[in-house]
Amino acid sequence: MNEFDSPRPNGRIHPSARWDRLNANDATTLFRDSWKSIDDVPSLLSLPAKHRAFGIDQLTPTEYNPDEYKTVAAWVENLSDQQHRDGLSPADTEGYGQGLYLSGPYGTGKTTIAAAALVSVYRAGNSVGFIRFTDLLAAHRPAPGNERRLEDDLERKEEAGQLQGWKKLAREAGVLLIDDVGQEREIKGSEFAEDILTSTLRSRFNAGLPTMVSTNLTLDRWRARYGDALASFIHEAFAHFLFFGGPDLRSTR
Hints:
The protein is α/β, with parallel strands linked by helices and 253 residues long. Helix content is 41%, strand content 13%. The protein has helices at 28-34, 66-77, 79-82, 110-123, 133-140, 147-152, 154-172, 192-206, 219-226, 228-237, and strands at 85-86, 89-90, 99-103, 128-132, 175-181, 211-215, 238-243.
């Protein structure tokens, strides 16, 4: 057993820990069978089961990204001040609704740290959401076949309900993590992914709802993939741009 296999003696967990052994609840079946909208189950259940047990204060940063970890932890700690309103107006007009941009190669701990931030936000009494970008795109694609067949087919209705749940989660979660942005298949000449990402980020920011994204894209590659307008807007929507380096921690277990 190495340092990645179990909790540290002080109760803090390495970001590349063997999460399959450390799940804190067994609600996965409930989530899979009944989730149709954000209202049906606690929003924490949108996170993969392996990420639900530990908040940001329970993680020990890797040696490769200590400053990035500190920035995420500080953002979580200051989130209530950032989101405070005086009546209908935000007290912090600069930071209100701003989230985080986490980029870097595969396996460097981006999703683990971002998910831990969500857990801490949830424990503070706020709704959260986790969605892979490919699932968000699937939720917005037109349903195949005609509407009558969709209504008559129970399996299709259940699938449509889950897709509507994803859309509602992305729209309404107090803090949302969109995971693996840039991993969707590129379709030449199509701006579908760009349109959905732009719409989601802009609508949430305009509503004052912070969003985190994890991506393998550098800022230059983000611009090349999603265009100049969105490349400009993210500097308004995100408080920090964090790059995670180091080896693939999954392959070093």
